[in-house]
Structure formats: C-alpha cells, structure tokens
C-alpha cells in the first residue's frame, strides 16, 4: 500500500495498530469489515440524561429546612404549609412593592418548599428522631446564624452541581447522542431507515446506492457498501455475515441488523472518547492509496484496478474526495468522521464536568454535616453560653464552621478563592475547592470565642435561607 505524503499521514503507533488488526484478516474485505465494525461499535451507543445524585438534592433540601425551622416565629408564620400548593402564593402581604418584593417573589416557592419539608417531617419537634425542638431561644438564634451560613452557599452550589451533573454546557447527553447518530446514520437521521435520504442514493442496486459522492456521510451506509456486492452473496467480509446480492434492491431492516450482529463488541458499554479515537486511527491506517495518473485514489477494501464498482472483484468504498485527489489538493472534511470527533470532544467535556460535580457534591455534603452538628448542639442546649456575670454573652458556635463556609462560597473557582485570601482561604488543588487554611481552622476549633454586646434576636421580618444581595 502506497501512502502519499501530505494526503494520508500514518504514524508508527497507528501502523502497529492496523497490523495487529489485520493479523487474522483473510483479505482486504475482512480487514474493512473489522475496521467498520470498530467504527460502528463506537458510534452505536447513547448517553443517559443526567448523573445527578438524589442525595445531593436531599442534602440541600434538608439544609434549607433546618434553616427555616430555626428562623424566628415572625418569619415562619408567613408560610401556610397545610396544603400541597404554595400559600400564600407570593409575599405581597408582607413586603411593599419594589426590588425587595421582586426578589422575595422569585425565592418564595423555594422558601415555602423548605417550610413544607420542615412541617411534613416534624423537624424541630419532639416527633423527629434526630432534629428535636430547640427549646432555648438563644440557642435557636445561634443555630440559625450558623446554619444560614451553610444553607446559603449550598443553595448556590446546587445550581452549579445540577449543570455539571448533566455534563456541563459542552457535554450534555443530547449533544453527544446527536453527534453519534449523525456519524452512524447521517445528519438528521435517527435510524437506518433514513439512510436512503442521507447517505445512500438508492437501494435498487450497488451501483446506484454506493456512489462515491455519497460515501463518508454515514458509517452504516459505507459499511453496507463495503460488504454487499452486486454479483453474488459470497461471504467476502466475514463468515458471520451472509450478504445480499445487491443486483436487486436491498432491505435495510434485514441486512443492517445482520451486519451489525457480525461484529464482535469488546468495547465499553457507554460511549468512549478513547474508543472513538482508536476506531478512527484503525480506519485511517487501513485505507489503501494508489496513484492514478497524478490523482491519488483512496479506498477501503479491494478495488478492481482503481475503481470500487461493487463487483465481487471490486468490492470497496471510495474515499478519494477526503483522502486523495490531484497532487497539491486538500481533501474535504468527511462528515461521519467530523461527527465522531465532535462526539469524542463532547464526551471528554462531559467526563470533566462530572468529575467537578462530584467535588461539589462533597462540598454540599460537608455543609450539611456541619449544619447537623450545629443543630444537635443547639437542641442539646450547648450552643449558647451565658457569661458568669449573667450578661447573656454567647459563644460563637463552631467558629471554624462559619469561617469555612465563607471560603466554600468561592466554590470550585480558584480565582474567587484568591480574593478571599485575607480571610485565610486557600484553594485545595486536589479537592478542587476553596477551604479554610488547616492551621487556622485548628486554632479556631480550640479557641473559646465569645460574642459580646449582641442580644441574639432576629428582627421583625425574621431571616431567610437565601441571603438577598
């Protein structure tokens, strides 16, 4: 096989790859079958919608419910959770018209949902197994101050988590699946029945169906053209596939499933960027090129002279428009190849996004765990510490928790974390999150910090689980 410089680059690793692939190939048609099988297997897969964990949603909803249950009586009285619908439907009765009302109106359903969860699960009452009533008002006020610092960043992180768990903006399941379908069946086609509209000129006979102008549009079409000749039904491609004598019309619904079934699938169940890249490499290494009077002819299979004519002796697929042509010309971009590459890129982006979503899930879980600790301390009456003089001074609950939460608000952004350097925040490269310096956290946990000159009471409007900007 002659490869023309500038037309088909074959690097050493890929050459070894195709040689390995060809070891047990009886002929060029057998090799083309193996290569097309690899491409089909890589493309004939789908990605599920989202990998969002219900545990993350539960953590955030619990945080908001704990935050609500520790709010002032004035605040909790605004919400009617006796029914299954938001009531009142908006905060118009509690705040005058203006930006504040607009903000409250937007957040109102979320606040009501937190109130409903707290009521339905008896959070803050003797009926709940873990979150008993906080009977001391000072402890309750302290708990609310601390838990709000957990709930606020958790709510923000949840929105980002949801996006990343869906693959981010560049790795959604829909995007990947569209690219894979387009590679397999042609742009806009969802199954093999649409091939005649995209990548097969006709089904009547090989010559009408497999024109070289239509090659490179869909893997399925090229595969059918590579393994069904127009003279007989000899098993030229694979002993596991009995081809159609394509001198008469071929039935896609019969022969495409049979051709796919002749492939041995050892690849991963889910779409894989590495599997796609390997299949592409094997395909390009298997292409044969031949000079034809100054024009490079590129084929997969065994041509008759320089032509793919569909005969038993000339059964091949012509890719000259993409990999050959006159000297000095550049081939066109092949449609199914481009769609496969786009799918691989999107799959890689999805994997990166999912890894980031796992890091955020861990952050949210940590915030929920910290809120648990605060609530349980308050319920046990251990959060509020009056001074010896009886002046009702309060110890700051879990001082490291509040400081840690400030750092956590930067999320996975290293730049935002740097802006919090003055607050002793540092970016953890391994965990991909902003956190309080370990030495600072250790000192705070040991310190007996007290707050002076604060009465611990909320204002008449109460407090919220999402801070207004």
TrEMBL record:
Residues 20-365 form the Trypanosome variant surface glycoprotein B-type N-terminal domain. The keyword Magnesium does not apply. InterPro entries: Trypano_VSG_B_N_dom, VSG_C_dom_sf. Residues 1-24 form the signal peptide. Keywords: Cell membrane, Glycoprotein, GPI-anchor, Lipoprotein, Membrane, Signal. It is a lipid-anchor; GPI-anchor. Transmembrane segments: none annotated. GO terms for cellular component: plasma membrane; side of membrane. Pfam families: VSG_B. Residues 445-458 have a biased composition (Basic and acidic residues). It comes from the Eukaryota. It is found in: Cell membrane. The keyword Lipid metabolism does not apply. Residues 386-412, 445-469 are annotated as: Disordered. VSG forms a coat on the surface of the parasite. The trypanosome evades the immune response of the host by expressing a series of antigenically distinct VSGs from an estimated 1000 VSG genes. This is Variant surface glycoprotein 1063. It comes from Trypanosoma brucei.
């Amino acid at each position: 096989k002659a490869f023309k410089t500038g037309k088909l680059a074959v690097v050493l690793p890929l050459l070894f790859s195709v040689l390995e692939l060809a070891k047990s190939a009886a002929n060029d048609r057998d090799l083309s079958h193996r290569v097309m099988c690899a491409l089909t297997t890589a493309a004939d897969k789908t990605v599920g919608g989202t990998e969002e964990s219900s545990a993350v949603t539960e953590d955030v909803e619990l945080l908001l419910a704990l935050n609500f249950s520790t709010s002032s009586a004035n605040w909790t009285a605004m919400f009617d959770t006796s029914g299954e619908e938001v009531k009142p439907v908006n905060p118009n009765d509690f705040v005058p018209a203006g930006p504040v009302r607009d903000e409250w109106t937007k957040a109102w359903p979320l606040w009501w949902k937190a109130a409903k969860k707290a009521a339905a699960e008896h959070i803050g009452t003797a009926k709940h197994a873990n979150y008993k009533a906080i009977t001391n008002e000072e402890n309750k006020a302290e708990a609310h101050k601390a838990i709000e610092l957990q709930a606020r960043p958790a709510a923000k992180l949840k929105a980002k988590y949801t996006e990343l768990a869906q693959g981010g903006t560049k790795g959604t399941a829909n995007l990947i699946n569209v690219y894979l379908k387009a590679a397999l069946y042609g742009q806009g086609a969802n199954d093999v029945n649409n091939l005649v509209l995209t990548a097969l000129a006709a089904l009547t006979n090989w010559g009408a169906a497999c024109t070289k102008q239509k090659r490179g549009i869909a893997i399925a079409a090229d595969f059918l053209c590579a393994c069904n000749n127009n003279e007989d039904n000899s098993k030229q491609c694979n002993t596991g596939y009995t081809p159609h004598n394509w001198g008469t019309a071929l039935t896609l619904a019969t022969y495409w499933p049979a051709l796919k079934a002749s492939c041995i699938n050892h690849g991963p169940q889910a779409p894989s960027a590495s599997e796609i890249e390997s299949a592409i490499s094997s395909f390009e290494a298997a292409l044969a090129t031949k000079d034809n009077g100054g024009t490079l002819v590129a084929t997969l299979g065994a041509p008759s002279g320089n032509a793919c004519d569909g005969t038993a002796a000339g059964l091949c697929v012509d890719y000259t428009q993409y990999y050959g042509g006159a000297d000095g010309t550049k081939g066109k971009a092949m449609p199914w190849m481009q769609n496969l590459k786009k799918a691989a890129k999107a799959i890689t982006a999805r994997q990166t996004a999912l890894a980031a979503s796992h890091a955020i899930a861990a952050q949210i879980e940590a915030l929920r765990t910290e809120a648990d600790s605060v609530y349980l301390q308050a319920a046990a009456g251990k959060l509020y510490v009056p001074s010896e003089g009886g002046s009702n001074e309060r110890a700051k609950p879990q001082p490291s928790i509040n400081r840690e939460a400030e750092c956590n608000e930067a999320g996975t952004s290293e730049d935002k974390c740097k802006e919090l350097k003055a607050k002793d925040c540092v970016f953890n490269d391994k965990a991909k999150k902003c956190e309080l310096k370990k030495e600072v956290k250790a000192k705070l946990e040991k310190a007996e910090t007290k707050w002076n000159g604060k009465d611990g009471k909320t204002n008449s409007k109460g407090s919220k689980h999402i801070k207004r900007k």
